Amino acid sequence: MMTNRIGEYLDELFPNPKCELLYNNDYELLIAVVLSAQSTDKRVNSVTPIIFGKYNTLEKLKNASLSDLEAIIRPVGSFRRKAFYVKEIARILYSEYSGVVPRDREILSTFPGVGRKTINVFLSEFYKEPAIAVDTHVERISKRLGLAYRNDDVLKIEKKLMKKFPKGEWAKRHLQMVLFGRYHCKAIKPECSKCKLIDICKEKKKNL
Ligand code: SF4
């Protein structure tokens, strides 16, 4: 019942949710998602066209100078680690997978910088596989709206959301919750007075 109301409101706010990361192919998406950890899509979108414009094949990207990649990635944060991930992912894809990102959770989880959330985002966005990636927005909203407990970890939250929402809605709900968190139910100063879920929200009193 409560989940239905949340779903209906998310559909009302975001009838056609889209991933806001820019990409042209499978590996650009994977790398963009890796770069987006602890950063914002906006910052990632400001650097990926530079990376993929300058190094426009996996072969060029795997041979890129690490210091040049670091300089380009700097605005995203954690740039040394992320530059290494980008170069390494390009090398693995080029030399072991003929340049195609494998559609396989186990294989993807062996890639540097690629964790469960990244895999869920990649598979649901690129292959439209049912998955709910729990990022910081999804975690916060799930807790505020009582879809998860305050001390649940991301894996627990993911499992709870998968139980509460029908499988066919998982990918859409992830995108909608990200957008809801980004533009309405923000971490600081959420827009509670305009929110139609205020009566079921655990956070509202603090924010009004
Ligand atoms: Fe978020 Fe406020 Fe709505 Fe609660 S009432 S879901 S904190 S915007």
Would you kindly provide a brief summary of this structure?
With 208 residues, this protein is an all-alpha fold.
What does this structure look like?
With 208 residues, the chain is an all-alpha fold. The protein has two domains: 2-17 and 133-207, Endonuclease Iii, domain 2; 26-126, Hypothetical protein, domain 2 (Endonuclease III, domain 1), CATH 1.10.340. It has twelve helices and no strands. Helix 2 (26-36) packs antiparallel against helix 6. 36% of the residues are buried.
**What portion of residues belong to β-strands?**
under 5%
How helical, in percent, are the residues?
A: 55-70%
The CATH class of the largest domain is identified as Mainly Alpha
| Name given to the CATH homologous superfamily of the largest domain | Hypothetical protein, domain 2
The CATH topology label of the largest domain is: Endonuclease III, domain 1
Counting DSSP E segments of at least 2 residues, the number of strands comes to: 0
Structural class: mainly alpha
SS summary, helix count: 12
Query: Strand count, sense and closure of the main sheet?
Result: none
Radius of gyration: 18 Å
What is the end-to-end distance?
25 Å
Q: How many structural domains in the coordinates? A: 2
